[in-house]
UniProtKB/TrEMBL annotation:
Major site of localization recorded for this protein: membrane
Keywords tagged on the record: Developmental protein, Disulfide bond, Glycoprotein, Immunoglobulin domain, Membrane, Receptor, Signal, Transmembrane, Transmembrane helix
Lineage top rank: taxon: Eukaryota
Lineage: Eukaryota, Metazoa, Chordata, Craniata, Vertebrata
GO biological process terms, semicolon-separated: anterior/posterior axon guidance
GO molecular function annotations of the record: netrin receptor activity
Name the UniProt record assigns to this protein: Netrin receptor UNC5
Gene Ontology annotations for the cellular component aspect, listed alphabetically: plasma membrane
Taxonomic source organism: Podilymbus podiceps
Domain Ig-like per the UniProt entry, residue ranges: 133-216
UniProt record similarity statement: Belongs to the unc-5 family.
Length: 706
């Protein structure tokens, strides 16, 4: 070959330009050998007298070249094009040492020019993927990443994705894209994305498929809104009403979790029974009058109709003719007229004297407010304070000097530490929270109904009073100054203690304490939460107190940190309920503190408002105290006898409500109320009657228990 080169260079082809170096119009390019097929390399140069290939530094034999000569029509210069073939065996000879490459060298009379190197590689694609996608279950709107690392190959494999054997095109779906590492990414999972996904790798040699990965997009269930409360189950007496919700917002799909919590809620309701009126016995006959008649009367009062019952039918007055020495058909004389006038005058005088006596009695009793007690009586032993004389026009405030001989001490209980020092709340010797003696220290609500109505009328002008009950049965109220005092709702265990100096000097507040029925206030409960105390309001809200007031109320929880998570809830000004304190946890605020005892809790707060104690069971050992109370008619006038069983929260306020209801129904308490520990076992409470003589009585229940 070298000799041929010399000869060729020494005798250039006629017509070649003597002063131009050859330049390549076509240079060899990188190629791949697929299986055992040889590849062809080509190059073309002008002006060129000779062209040869050199592969991996060695000249290719002249006989392996295929040469074509032509002339460039534009310049008239000679053009030479050369082809060679490279086989798989040639490449495999140097496999592992270096890559196989070839280069063209062109000659002219002016010198030589080399083309670019063209690499010849053996193409292949291995069978096994380095990483395949795996099946997954994801929640709706969650992101998904399906990894795929294709098999090793030359040239590198291109990757595409199939969804249920259809090509995934990111250009058509903005929710899908493929990363440079070939992973398929779904930004937010949709129900339509539930499918089998396959990673496909391909190059010029082969096409490989990964194992299919099943992607399941599930939807967790959500509760719908509660339906309206149903009507009361009974038309007379105590019954139940319920409401329900469904797990359809959304409905669980593809194995998603079902809704947690109850789908039915029940609450007690009471319907007053209608009582039909009945006549009393006739009175005795009157004396035969001047008109020769006598009469007798009766009243519709045994019983009187109430609660929509029917009135008595028949006459109320019965008259009959009679004869006696007084019977006369003559007109009354002047003497009779004078007698009647005298009797009327005497009656008017007696009425006036009675009114004067009542006014004098009321004026004497009006000097004291039945709902306000002196601070020194209610809180004997508080830190002594100087007392300003009361104004002349405010006779309802007592200003008796407190007992200055008693000593004071700081309360040493588990009161939450405050930033303003421990001396802010000075408590007396002895336990502050112990019940006060019968009426001697306790402020009972004993005002006449007219005063209660007047107080409610004054409060009703305020916006915060709109959510309070309109009656005064479950309310205590009073007017307080810096001396403080205590309010108590009788027979409920609910009281509010305002210590001395809690109200700034010179300020006078009208304070109320109210017990709410559960149906009056909407307290939303979530999951396994349950109400553990009555819902109590004290106010008015926004009152400025310089010391914490103490709100006491009962509860029905068997407290245990392992079984219960107990929270104190307070209703905000917007009407939403907020957790202000979690018992047993580190307090997040110093505005509230709650001391929980066996049957009562004591809330220390400087902000009055509406409070309730709510618990959530942490285990099936959590239990509430229920009180089992039985009432029945005092007599059995017919062949039927009804026993009314009440399962109540073990707090005084609920028992008081039932007793008031049974007084209206004429019921009688059977035995002593029993305490029942009701555990969170997800089972119903079942009631049945035992030891009933079958020969004397037959149960009307359709089942053996209710």
């Amino acid at each position: 070959a070298g000799a041929q080169q010399s000869a060729t260079v020494a005798n250039p082809v006629s017509g070649a330009s003597p002063d131009l170096l050859p330049h390549f119009q076509l240079e060899p390019e990188d190629v791949y050998i697929v299986k055992n097929k040889a590849v062809s390399l080509a190059c073309r140069a002008t002006p060129a007298t000779q062209i040869y290939f050199k592969c991996n530094g060695e000249w290719v034999h002249q006989g392996d070249h295929i040469t074509q000569h032509s002339t460039d029509r534009g310049t008239g210069l000679p053009v030479m094009e050369v082809h060679i073939e490279v086989t798989r065996q040639q490449v495999e000879k140097i496999f592992g040492l270096e890559e196989y490459w070839c280069q063209c060298v062109a000659w002219s009379s002016s010198g030589t020019t080399k083309s670019q190197k063209a690499f010849v590689r053996i193409a292949y694609l291995r069978k096994n993927f380095e990483q395949e996608p795996t099946a997954r279950e994801v929640s709706i709107e969650q992101g998904i990443v399906l990894p795929c690392r294709p098999p090793e190959g030359i040239p590198p494999a291109e990757v595409e994705w199939l969804r249920n054997e259809e090509l995934v095109d990111p250009a058509l779906d903005a929710n899908v894209y493929v990363t440079p590492e070939h992973s398929l990414v779904l930004r937010q999972a949709r129900l339509a994305d539930t499918a089998n996904y396959t990673c496909v790798a391909k190059n010029i040699v082969a096409r490989r498929r990964s194992a299919s990965a099943a992607i399941t997009v599930y939807v967790n269930g959500g509760w719908s809104t509660w339906t309206q409360w149903s009507g009361c189950s009974t038309s007379c007496g105590r019954g139940w009403q319920k409401r329900s919700r469904t797990c359809t917002n959304p409905t669980p799909l593809n194995g998603g979790a079902f809704c947690e919590g109850q789908n039915v809620q029940k609450t007690a309701c009471t319907t007053l029974c209608p009582v039909d009126g009945a006549w009393s016995e006739w009175s005795k006959w009157s004396v035969c009058g001047a008109e020769c008649t006598r009469w007798r009367s009766r009243e519709c009062s045994e019983p009187a109709p109430r609660n929509g019952g029917r009135d008595c039918h028949g006459p109320e007055l019965d008259t009959r003719n009679c004869t006696s020495e007084l019977c006369s058909h003559a007109a009354p004389g002047a003497e009779d007229v004078a007698l009647y006038v005298g009797l009327v005058a005497v009656a008017v005088c007696l009425v006036l004297l009675l009114l004067v006596g009542v006014l004098v009695y009321c004026r004497k009793k009006g000097g004291l407010d039945a709902d306000v007690a002196d601070s020194s009586i209610l809180t004997a032993g508080f830190q002594p304070v100087s007392i300003k004389p009361s104004k002349a026009d405010n006779s309802s405030l007592l200003t008796i000097q407190p007992d200055l001989s008693t000593t004071t001490m700081t309360y040493q209980g588990s009161l939450c530490p405050r930033q303003d020092g421990p001396a802010k709340l000075q408590l007396p010797n002895g336990h502050l929270l112990s019940p006060l003696g019968a009426g001697r220290h306790t402020l009972h609500h004993s005002s006449p109904a007219a005063e209660g109505a007047d107080f409610v009328a004054r409060l009703s002008t305020q916006s915060y009073f709109r959510s309070l009950p309109r009656g005064t049965t479950n309310m205590a109220y009073g007017t307080f100054n810096f001396l403080g005092g205590r309010l108590m709702i009788p027979n409920t265990g609910i009281s509010l203690l305002i210590p001395p100096d809690a109200i700034p000097r010179g300020k006078i507040y009208e304070v109320y304490l109210t017990l709410h029925k559960q149906e009056e206030v909407r307290l939303p409960l979530a999951g396994c939460q349950t109400l553990l105390s009555p819902i109590v309001s004290c106010g008015p809200p926004g009152v400025l107190l310089t010391r914490p007031a103490i709100l006491a109320m009962g509860h029905c929880v068997e407290a245990s940190a392992e079984n219960w998570s107990i929270r104190l809830k307070k209703q905000s000004c917007e009407g939403t309920w907020e957790d202000v304190l979690q018992l047993g946890a580190e307090p997040c605020t110093e505005l509230y503190y709650c001391q929980l005892e066996a049957q009562a809790c004591y809330i220390f707060t400087e902000q009055l408002g509406r409070f309730a104690l709510v618990g959530e069971s942490l285990s099936m050992a959590a239990s509430k105290r229920l009180k089992l109370v039985l009432f029945a008619p005092a007599a059995c006038p017919s062949l039927e006898y009804n026993i009314r069983v009440y399962c109540l929260s073990d707090t005084q306020d609920v028992l008081k409500e039932v007793i008031q209801l049974e007084k209206q129904l004429g019921g009688q308490l059977i035995g002593t109320p029993r305490v029942l520990h009701f555990k969170d076992s997800y089972h119903n409470l079942r009631l049945s009657i035992h030891d009933m003589p079958s020969s004397l009585w037959k149960s009307k229940l359709l089942a053996s228990y209710q």
